[in-house]
Amino acid sequence: MAKINPFDSALKQLDQAAKLIDLDADTHDRLKMPMRELHVSVPVKMDDGSTKVYEGYRVQYDDSRGPTKGGLRFHPDTDINEVKALAFWMTFKCATVGIPYGGAKGGITINPKELSEGELERLSRSFIRQLGDFIGPEIDIPAPDVYTNPQIMGWMMDEFSQIHGKNCPAVITGKPLEIGGSEGRGYATAQGGVYCTINLAEKLGFGEGSTVAIQGFGNAGSYMAKILTEKGYKIIAVSDSKGGIMNVEGLDPAEVEKHKQGTGSVQGYAGAEDISNEELLELGCDILVPAALENVITEENAGNIKAKAVVELANGPTTPEADAIMVKNGIVVVPDILANAGGVTVSYFEWVQNLANYYWTEEEVLERLKPIMDKSFELTWANKEKYGCDMRTAAYVLATERIAAAMKARGM
Ligand code: NAD
Question: Does ligand 1 come within 6 angstroms of the Cβ of 314?
Fold first, then answer.
């Protein structure tokens, strides 16, 4: 099968909302193309003394609502179309939850698991030198994404600060706490997803004991498993890049994590049966949570999905064709631009704390995150009822109206 271009999927998602609200053609045209696309070479001195050059990207999609914001991904399959799509989704995500940012994303085509710690640090610093003056606290603010983490953000913040001769914590979010990270940022994406799940549960009559399958056991997926377990949900399956595990009686996420730390994968966990990632997606459960990569729910498997609801912690896990099939089958999808927006919202809090140089407690972070997620969910649900559409289109309506209003207010 030909590789699905996620940017094509992203534009189709916008088209549906644009049609519903009769978006003017000029605004629609502006939103079809990124504002700026950077392609950089990232040279790295390897431990053996040789120099390798990797391909890096940063796409700043639209800044009508504020400086652009979005993560950096280190992955062997990352390419410009993926980064463009991810930057597009960030633009609409920030607008859906009403935080004052545009959208961006970046990445390097690389398998970071093959690098030593020293090589990874030199790669991260080299990337920041290449992005140079195109990023900054009032311009574009990166963050972690797949296979990047707080330590990498710390190196990047340090490199930017050294270049500029002053401490610049607000240039990047997702940093370690010791250098201006925010309480709660580590699990914020999952926490936002949990608030959405609880709101959805009230609408659909789920609750304690409802069953959940989670694809991807990284930052987003593993915290989702832990927090939902604390709320009384039963996690019956999880997976990572090597495969998945299942136990219909429920898994203990903390024990699964220990196993993964010891062996490198969730597979082989004593209290469960090994399954494939494909099988996980098609399990009978109440809620399916894709929390890994794009294009995993396609027209090939959408008809086999038995979950009653999908909560998209991953960006772009569902193709437009798969969406149509799930809508027809009555499966409610909480879209990525709402479901995983807790991460960028707490990143926004981190940036605010850095600029004010005044830091909040974990309780204060959660007290501010919950109302934003709850309100965004309610506004999306209200649009779904108003237009008789699915939740993704409803969220795009909300976001597109906000971006269009910002463009108009600027006189563009
Ligand atoms: P991560 O690197 O911490 O974890 C990724 C997980 O996906 C790992 O468990 C990995 O083994 C698994 N994985 C990789 N390839 C896979 C495959 N082919 N099949 C199944 N599993 C696979 O990354 P993360 O930060 O948890 O990000 C996961 C998703 O959530 C991405 O789509 C990301 O864009 C999205 N997201 C993350 C954040 C955040 O704050 N970290 C915020 C919003 C959205």
Answer: yes
